[in-house]
Amino acid sequence: MDSLATDSLRTDTLKKESTLKAPVKYSARDSIRYSVSGKEVFLYGDAEVTYQDINLKADYIRLDQATYQLYAEGVPDSTGKIKGKPVFKEGDKTYKADYIAYNFKTKKGKIREIKTEEGEGYLQGKNVKKNPNDELFIKNGIYSTCNLDHPHFFININKAKVTPKRIITGPAFLVVEDVPLPLAVPFGFFPKKNDRASGVIFPKYGEDRSLGFFLREGGYYFAVNDYVDLAVRGSFYTNTSYGLGSFMNYKKRYKFNGGVDVNYNERKLGEPETPQYLVTKDFFIRWNHNQDEKANPSSRFSANVNAGTSQFLRNTSYNVTNLIQNDLSSSINYSKNWQGTPYNLSVGLTHNQNVQTGAISLGLPSATFNVQSFNVFDSKKRVGKQLWYQKIRTGYTANLQNRISTIDTLLFKTNSLKNFRNGIQHSIPVTTSFTALKYLNISPSFNYTEKWVLSTIEKRFENNKEIIDTLYGFKATREYSTNVSASTTVFGMYPINRAGIVALRHVLKPSVGYSFRPDFSEPQYGYYKTYVYDSLGRTKKYSVVEQSIFGPPGAGKSSALNFGFGNLVELKTKSKKDTITGTKKILLLQAFDIRSSYNMAADSFNLGAITINGRTVVFNRINVDFGANYDAYTYNRTTGIRRNQFELKQNKRLVRFSSGSFALSGNLNPQQKQERKTTTNPADEEFLEYINNNLDDYVDFSVPWSLYVTYRMDFNADARPGVNRYTQSLLFNGDVSVTTKWKIGFNSGYDVQLKKFTPTSLDIIRDLHCWDLTFAWIPFGTRQSYTVNLKVKARVLQDLKLIRRREFYNE
Fold it and tell me: pLDDT tens digits for 315-334?
C-alpha cells in the first residue's frame, strides 16, 4: 500500500459520513502516514486512538476508515524485543495484549495473548474474541490471583466465557510453580465482583502430640450478601477427636457492625478402656457488636462477649497468649441520654470468669441512672464573676445491681438462683472549689450514700457452730462522709549550662487533705449487732447487711489527714532542629509520687503505709514503672505480726521497706506498627482501615525485626521464712526477617523461679508473593504440636508487604 505523506507529531480527527456516534481521534509521536486512497491511516510511536469511552495505545496502529476497523501491535526494538504492546481500555476495563483487531461500528474484536484484571484475579488467554455485549470468549487461558505475567500458581483453562458478572470455564486444573496438580474440575465458575465471594476454606495440616495428625479449621465460606457473611469450619484428628465452629460477620455502614463466633470441641485423650482415657467437651462463644456513633447520638448499644467452659482455651487453642490467659470477661451495654437534659441511663449485663478456678460472676442486670452535676445556686442570668456559693455543685446517681458468684459447673443448677445478691445504691455528692492565697486550690466535698437491700442476716451460736439465718425484707442503710483538700503547683528551674544541658526543670505538686466519717457500727444506727461465737461466751460484732452486694456501712471512726507530693523532672537541652527556641525537653521522670495518711481517730497504727510510685520512658520506646511501700511500724517476719511500735524507737530508722516492684516494657524497634497510608486499589480502602486498627494481626516484611519485651519483678520483704520473697517474669515476642521473603516469629517467656521457659511458639513464614506459607511450632508443653498453612493472600496485603496471622473470615 502506498502513501502520499508522512507527518510527525500530528493529531487529527476522523470525520466522515458514517454511522459513528462520535469522532475518532488519533495521534502519534513519531509519524502519521496516509494511504493513497486516504482510507487508511498508519500511526507510529506512542500511537493513540480514542472513540467515546474506548482508548487504544500501541507503538503501531493501523486505522481503516472505510470499515471502521483498527489493528494494533508492538514493534521490535534494536535488540529484537517487542515494545509498545497494545493497551485497550473500554470504560473501567483494561486489556493488555500482543495484537488487537477491533471494529468501532460492531464493537467486535480479536485479541492474541490477552491479560486483564477480573475481580480479585487476573485472566490471560492466547486467542480471544470479543462481542458487542462486552463478553470475551477465550481459548487456552489461565486464571490466577497472582498479578505476575508468569504467575506462581494458576488454573489452566481450555476455554472460557467472560461476562460482566462471572467467568465460566470448561475443564480446568490447578498448576503450582509450573507443576500440574491432580486437582481438576469438569467446569468452573468464578464471580468477578470485587467484594467477598463464597468458597472453600482450606484446612491447616499438622500433628498434635496428644491427638495425632489433623486437618484443622477447614470448611466453607458463604458470602451471604453485602451485609452478612458466614464461615463454617471443622477440625478432625486421627484419634477421632473433632471440633466444629461457625463465624458470622455482619456490617451495615453508618449503622452497626459485629461478629459472632461459636465453637464446640470434643477431645479424646489416652486409649479407650484404660483408666487414663479422658473425653473433654468444651464450647466457647464470642460476640462483638459496635454501633456507629452517627446512627443514633442519643442512644448506643454495644456488646463484647467472651464466654465458655473454663478449659476451652487450654484444651483447644494453639495460640500461646490464649494458653496463659487466666480471666475472661464480657459486657453487653445499652445507654440512653436525653438531649438538652442532665439525665442519662445505662443498662448492662456483665460476666467475669477465672479459667483456672472456674469461679464465675454474672451481673444480670446492672443499671445506672445519673443526673449530671449542676450548680445549685448559680443562675443562667448571672452577670459577672461566680461567687463562692455559686460554685457549689451536686448530682445524683442510682445504681441497681443483681449479681451471682458461683462455679461454672454449678451455674445452671436450680439452687444457684437463690444465691443472687441485689440492691440499689443512691449517691449524692456535693462539691465546690475555690482559690485561696492566689495559688492554693481548695476543694471541699460532702458525700451521702443510701443503700436498699431486700434481705438481712442474723448470726447465732448453736450446737457448737455458727448459724447464719437470712431474713427477707426491705432494709435501708445510710452513711455520709466529708472531705477537704488543698493543692498547688510549684515550678523550679535550675540552670546548668554544661555539656549542652541548659537547665533542669522540676514540677512539684504538693497536696494535703482531711476526711471524716463517723463510726456506723455504733448501736444507734442499727446496722451492726453482736453475737456469742464460742462456748466461752466471747462475742463478735457483725453487720446485718455484710453479705449484701454493696457491703455494709463503714465500721470505725475515720478522721484522716492525707498528704502527698507529685513530681515531674525533665532536662532542657540545646537543639539545632528547633529554630524557634533552640532547645528541646528530655523527660527524666514522667511521675514520681509519694503518698501517705494519718488517721487521728484510730486507736493504733495511725500512720498509714508510705507509698512511692514512679514511671518514665527511656529512649522514647521503653516504659519503666517502679513502686515501693514503706511502713513506720515494726514487723516480725517469723510470726507475721505487725506491732504498734515505731521503727524509729525499736530499730533507729524512720521506716521499714515492706514491698516493691519494678517493670520494663516496650518495643525495641521504633519502626514496628507504623500506619499504612496507601493501597494500589481504591476498593481496598476499607480493608486498609481495618489493617491500621489491628496491626497486631499482621506480619510486616518491610520491618527487618521487632522485639517486644516485658520484664517485671515484685519483692515482698514481709514474706514469712520459707516463702519466696520475690517473683520475676520475662515475656517477649517479635520476629526477624532472615531474607526479604523469610521471616521467623516467636512468642515466649522465662520463669526465673522455676528456671524454665513458659509456653513458647515459633512461626516460620515464607512470602510467596501471591501465597503465604506458615509453619507454626509449639516445641514443648501440653500443646506441643506443629501446623502447616498455605493460603492465597489478598491483593492489598501484597501491596503493603504484609501477611495476615489469622484467616480472613475471622474478623
Answer: 777 666 666 667 788 999 99
Which single residue is written with the C-alpha cell 506459607?
773
Other beta carbons less than 10 A from residue 68's beta carbon: 19
Give residues with Cβ within 8 angstroms of 239, minimum separation 6.
Answer: 211, 212, 268
Tell which residue, 572, 598, 600, 597, has the closest CA to residue 585.
572
Compute the distance between CA of residue 12 and CA of residue 47 in angstroms, rounded to an integer.
Answer: 12
Q: How far apart are CA 97 and CA 74, in angstroms?
A: 9
Q: pLDDT tens digits for 742-762?
A: 888 888 888 887 788 887 888
Q: Three cell numbers at 719?
A: 514474706
End-to-end CA distance of the chain: 64
Claim: this prediction has a pTM higher than 0.85: no
**What is the CB neighbour count within 10 angstroms for residue 562?**
17
CA separation for the pair 221, 247 (Å, rounded): 9
Whether the per-residue pLDDT at 8 is higher than 50: the answer is no
- Across 518-654, the runs of DSSP E, i.e. the strands, are 528-532, 539-543, 558-574, 583-599, 610-618, 622-631, 633-636, 641-646
What is the spatial distance between Cα 748 and Cα 729, in angstroms, rounded to a whole number?
11
Only one residue has cell 452535676, namely 373
CA 806, CA 642: separation in Å to the nearest integer? 53
Q: Pull the grid cell for residue 25.
A: 481521534
- For residue range 353-404, list pLDDT tens digits in order: 887 777 888 888 899 999 999 999 888 888 888 888 889 999 999 999 998 8
